[in-house]
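Q: What would this chain look like folded?
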Amino acid sequence: MSSRQQVLRALAAIIALALIVGAFYNFNFTLREEPAPLLRLDTPQANPSPADEGLDFSAPGLDGKEIDLSHYRGHPVIVDFWATWCGPCRKQIPELVSLYKKYNKSRGLVIIGVSCDLIQGDGVRAVAPFVEKFRINYPIALADQRLVDSMSVEAIPTTLFVGPDGKLVSRIVGAGRAGEISARAKQLLDGVKGYGSPAKPGENSGHVVNISVVN
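A: My prediction, written as structure tokens:
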């Protein structure tokens, strides 16, 4: 065998050895790698409940146009359930009129009066003259039994204080103490949280009218 053939044979052996070593190294490296997941699963997100989305209702207004609470998202809102025949309701309406005049344009406060005269009383024909007599300057919606049930209103007046996110912040059941609505309204406007749990009708005995049972 010539020297040239010996050199070529030796070179071929070196190349073959290098290929074997390289294949063995790649095999070991692959074994050390973490196996890639076959499928990436995102953490499931809980669906929001109706309570998380905030309060909402829709009812006709005195002018026949629909009043929808959700249209006022982004605003602090006071929702007052009342009736023309309700004595305690009459006591707090002037305070609501004053609050609307003071804060509607300056701070975006929305007040919606929700008349319950369709449920009990003389109906819509009694509402318009009452609104004019008491110079009510905020919109009035007309409630039916379904609406008051959905809002858990069992007695009037019931006043709800709703944050800009549509969630109930507080409520007053009954006429309450003098200036209480104004104090709650100011806290609502200032974004104060947790300033009182919802009151129950029994806490204001003598200052509410029960509408849970319609004769």
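Helices lie at 3-32, 87-107, 127-133, 145-150, 180-189.
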